Amino acid sequence: MSAALHNFGMPPALDEMARLGSDYLALPFDMAREQYAKSVRAGLVERSLIASARFEHVLSAMESLMLGCMARRYR
Kind and range of the H or E element at 6? Predict the structure, then answer.
């Protein structure tokens, strides 16, 4: 649940709708994460913790930039 939305004290139904909307908007980023993982398993991308962390950092930054307060926070 997005901390930015949860802290405003919305009623539970609206809070759940906001969470679902956020999950829906984040779907392309989740698909990119899954495709990266499949590429690593298939051997198309180097299996490296550093490369994986860089990819996640860039993708997380793009998600935050594009979705603003609707982006999920992993930190």
Answer: helix 3-6
Q: Please report where in the chains the tokens 């690593």 appear, as a residue.
A: 40
**Which pLDDT score is estimated for 18?**
67
pLDDT (tens digit, 9 = 90+) per residue, 16-69? 776 777 778 888 999 999 999 999 999 999 999 999 999 999 999 998 898 887
CB atoms within 10 A of CB 15: 16
Name 25's Cβ contacts closer than 8 Å, sequence gap at least 6: 67, 70
In order, the DSSP letters of 11-65 are -HHHHHHHHHHHHHHTHHHHHHHHHHHHHHHHTSS---HHHHHHHHHHHHHHHHH
